[in-house]
Amino acid sequence: MTERFTEILRQASQPAWSQSVGHRFVTELLAGTVSDAVMVRYLVQDHRFIDSFLTLLGGALASADSFEARIRFGRFIGMVSGEENTYFLRSFEALGVSEQDRTAPPDSQATAGFKAIMREAAATRSYAAALSVLVVAEWLYLDWAQQASQPLPASFIHAEWITLHDNPDFRDFVGFLRSELDRVGPSEAETSRDFFLRAVALEKAFFDSAYDEA
């Protein structure tokens, strides 16, 4: 049986993929022991992705080659704009993060890199390029979130960040993304590999950056 293209890319990204999935931040988040200072630093930076992430999703929607795919992206855009964004706002309130606290810190190097690669992939107008970054952003998060044991951490800030990335709808969407990249990626293999590997490296750097001042 031929190995899936997305699995070939994941193997090519090692050890950064496994280092991300098994990162200290993930371990502490799943245990509910990540400190408020680290969580604030992480969430403030992660929230800044949303604009670029929506641009990337829009690029995928525009370059998709089927009506069904465009519907899937449209639904997911609604979830990110609604449920996920609301999670950030509720978390900021619970953690006492003011508007100034959210806007004053500069983008970390990893945040700037992620925003840039999302917009770069969207600007290519290549469905494979957009999918390559999206598959990393969503599949890698599903991979670590599926390690969670029950019961989940008591704090909604920890628990909901886990369940946002491991629930039936999200698992189904990751499956859809992988199937689409398996289908269209091989015809643009070099482009897909380049975006995929850079995105995985940025994921690890982003987790690292949560501890830069810890």
From TrEMBL:
Its EC number is 3.5.99.2. It is an enzyme of class 3 (hydrolase). It comes from the Bacteria. It holds the Pfam family TENA_THI-4. Pathway: Cofactor biosynthesis; thiamine diphosphate biosynthesis. SUPFAM superfamilies: Heme oxygenase-like (SSF48613). InterPro entries: Haem_Oase-like_multi-hlx, TenA_E, Thiaminase-2/PQQC, Thiamine_Salvage_TenA. The keyword Hydrolase applies. The keyword Cell membrane does not apply. Residues 11-212 form the Thiaminase-2/PQQC domain. It catalyses: thiamine + H2O = 5-(2-hydroxyethyl)-4-methylthiazole + 4-amino-5-hydroxymethyl-2-methylpyrimidine + H(+); 4-amino-5-aminomethyl-2-methylpyrimidine + H2O = 4-amino-5-hydroxymethyl-2-methylpyrimidine + NH4(+). Catalyzes an amino-pyrimidine hydrolysis reaction at the C5' of the pyrimidine moiety of thiamine compounds, a reaction that is part of a thiamine salvage pathway. Thus, catalyzes the conversion of 4-amino-5-aminomethyl-2-methylpyrimidine to 4-amino-5-hydroxymethyl-2-methylpyrimidine (HMP). PANTHER family: BIFUNCTIONAL TH2 PROTEIN (PTHR43198), SI:CH1073-67J19.1-RELATED (PTHR43198:SF2). Belongs to the TenA family. This is Aminopyrimidine aminohydrolase. It comes from Bosea vestrisii.
